[in-house]
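Let us work through a complete example step by step.
Step 1: write down the sequence.
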Amino acid sequence: MRLPLLAVLLTPVVAAAQTIQITYPTTTATARTLTVGPARCEGIVMVNYQATGQLCSDLELWVTTASNCSAGPQKTDHVFASLTPQQVATTPSGTQQFDLIDLPAFGADAGSSCGTPGVTETFQVCATSTRPDTIIQFCREGDDDPLRATPLELVYDAEPPDAPTITSVEPLDQELRVTVDAESNVGVRVEQRIAGTTDWTVVRTLGTDVRTLQITNLQNGTSYEVQAIAIDAAGNESAASGIASGTPIQTLGFWGAYKEAGGQQVGGCTATGAMLTPLGILAVLFLRRRRS
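Step 2: predict the structure and record it as tokens.
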């Protein structure tokens, strides 16, 4: 049975749901915040986008100093990509990027230098377009509905962390065990040098959950100096800790003490009550095995 023409015209057209998603290309798919600092001033920020359904206007990706994303970029915002609906239909997902030095909060210096040292700025990375009106179900300028992605957060952190503290330097045989105290969210780079010299050598950078390390391959009897520097997630480095020092010492242990004594028993025991020598111990074990 044919439907009357009027019924056909009034039948609603079900359109595919329109969505926009943006993410950072990190190993953690749910990461919504990226922290960068002056160490990456001349670097880039990459943003993945994915769009579904029909878009009625350009898909714009932009950065703002505002606390949230509006329906579209404002004059002071930085637009780093603008894709036509045809381009999005052809390539519904991809990656766009922008230079850090173009962040809008850098004002007159944007494009030439990064932000003020010692200051932290927070930005929103936005993606917006428009979609067909939910009633008429097709694009018509003036009637389209705004479409926004959930924004990403970008933190430009130029504040260095507090300097760590070296709490102990324990001398070992050709080694020093170093313990540091630092903020919980920073790594710590440990450096060493021979006392009286000027050049520091990096030993290792500790992760945020490690605060102790051993410096190996040192010379017993030689004095060494140690310092530590904290590094935060944005790459900012703290001032160096105070310098601590330590001197590795020879540790003989049982066998070393035995050899040092010329292979003889040491201690206050008499000959009759002396402990068995290592060869004596082996002999006893051998005889016990023979008897069993």
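Step 3: interpret the result. The CA atoms of residues 224 and 237 lie 23 Å apart.
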